Amino acid sequence: MRPQSERPALLQLDLLVGRGVYDRDGRKIAAVSEVPLRRRGDQYVVDGLHVGVLAWFERVGFVPALRALGALFRFAAWRPEVRRVRWAQIASIEPHKVCLHALKDELEVVEPGD
To answer: Do 32 and 16 contact (CB within 8 A), yes or no?
Structure first.
């Protein structure tokens, strides 16, 4: 793993999508589904990485239909979520995975589209 100070200055963000995300104990959390950007003035900045099953549905615009199906068939027990990995929580970005300083429970749960 690379220390935080050795992260690449330039990174092709779309290449992060699909990479596995691992917590500080080496357990796989999920895969990167989305790399949301926020506009600050005339620039865009990376807000973090979205991971989790629901984040994949968010990426393809299927969240409203998924929620409707869940309500229709009463899938109350299945509660997929989107978790946000803040940039500061990333320990290293490697060719096929993203390693974190954090555990899964330390990641923020966000609403799709947030």
So the answer is: yes
The pTM for the full model equals 0.71
CA distance 67 to 21: 25
- The encoded tokens of residue 105 equal 């429970």
pLDDT (average), residues 99-106: 95
Q: Which residues, 6 or more positions from 15, have their beta carbon under 8 angstroms from its beta carbon?
A: none
Distance, in Å, from the CA atom of 111 to the CA atom of 82, rounded to the nearest integer, reads 7
Can you read off the two tokens belonging to residue 39?
Answer: 């506009």
Domains and CATH numbers, the chain: 18-110 (2.30.30)
Q: How far apart are CA 102 and CA 80, in angstroms?
A: 20
Q: Do residues 106 and 100 lie in contact, with contact meaning Cβ atoms separated by under 8 Å? A: no
